[in-house]
Design a protein that fits this description.
- This protein is α/β, with parallel strands linked by helices.
- It has a single domain, classed as Rossmann fold (3-Layer(aba) Sandwich).
- The chain is built from seven helices and eleven strands.
- It has a seven-stranded mixed beta sheet with strand order 3-2-4-5-1-8-9, sandwiched between helices. The chain has a four-stranded mixed beta sheet with strand order 6-7-10-11, with no helix packed on it.
- A hairpin with a 2-residue loop joins strand 8 and strand 9.
- The chain is globular and about 45 Å long.
- It starts with a strand and ends in an 18-residue tail after the last strand.
- The model has no long low-confidence stretch (mean pLDDT 93).
- It is an enzyme of class 3 (hydrolase).
Length: 245
């Protein structure tokens, strides 16, 4: 075993770049040379074959083999044998339902939290790494048995976090308003809004913001705060984090 190691990316594609292009150096640094093969979980998209081809091409270009879990006759065994796990983006509800349907929630938790294998998530794959998918942006197109997710970190994330456009005439709720509504419910955890182009690196009890943009942190009952890459978010990982302040 070893300490948990997570790379939680806001988005797979950044404007002007290819698939995972903006974070490929972070991926190589994160996986290192010990990992030879990555287990890819494409459940968030309907066309799993095409998704696996895209991911395989990228990871092979970085020097890693890639196995897609949907090609395995025994998904649980695939997780048990994996050296590293990558869950890609798409629809978070579809993804979480498939994780439950294939009995993978506890298996992935064990591999990551007890065995210490690296876990990488992008978008929906980042959402499911947290306590719950309550703060996803996706439509509930299918019905998972629970909104509780993998719980690899004790807070929630809002990937693709968008700031209000001051020039827009759109009168719908902003992302910030939606997160504030979530925090009107009792005992709701912190929510880290990750803008596109940013990611959270978790190594044991240390969490650091990486990338090129920034993040916005929402704590229940407090004003949101703005954070640049390099910010130490380790306090969010402790059991004494300010859940109910």
């Amino acid at each position: 075993g070893g300490p948990r190691r997570l790379l939680l990316v806001s988005n797979s594609t950044l404007h002007g770049g290819g698939y995972l292009g903006h974070c490929q150096q972070h991926i190589q640094s994160f996986l290192g040379q010990k990992v030879k093969r990555v287990l890819f979980i494409p459940y968030a998209l309907h066309d799993r074959d095409a998704y696996a081809r895209t991911a395989r091409e990228k990871f092979e270009s970085l020097g890693y083999g890639l196995d897609s879990i949907h090609e395995s006759c025994d998904p649980v065994e695939a997780v048990r044998k994996s050296e590293a796990i990558f869950i890609g983006g798409g629809n978070t509800f579809r993804l979480l339902k498939a994780l439950y349907d294939n009995s993978l929630i506890q298996e992935i938790r064990k591999r990551v939290l007890e065995d210490g294998i690296p876990y990488m998530g992008s978008s929906a794959g980042t959402n499911v790494a947290t306590i719950s998918i309550n703060t996803t942006n996706d439509m509930p197109i299918v019905y998972p048995p629970s909104l509780q997710a993998l719980g690899l970190v004790p807070f929630n994330i809002n990937p693709h976090y968008l700031d209000p456009d001051v020039k827009s005439t759109h009168m719908g709720e902003t992302r910030e308003e939606r997160i504030r509504q979530y925090h009107e419910e009792p005992n709701t955890p912190p929510v880290l809004g990750l803008r596109e182009g940013v990611m959270l690196l978790v190594e044991g009890d240390k969490a650091t913001l990486q990338g090129v943009t920034g993040a916005r942190l929402f704590l229940r009952g407090k004003k949101p705060t703005e954070h640049e890459p390099g910010t130490d978010f380790s306090f969010l990982l402790t059991d004494s984090n300010p859940l109910n302040l």
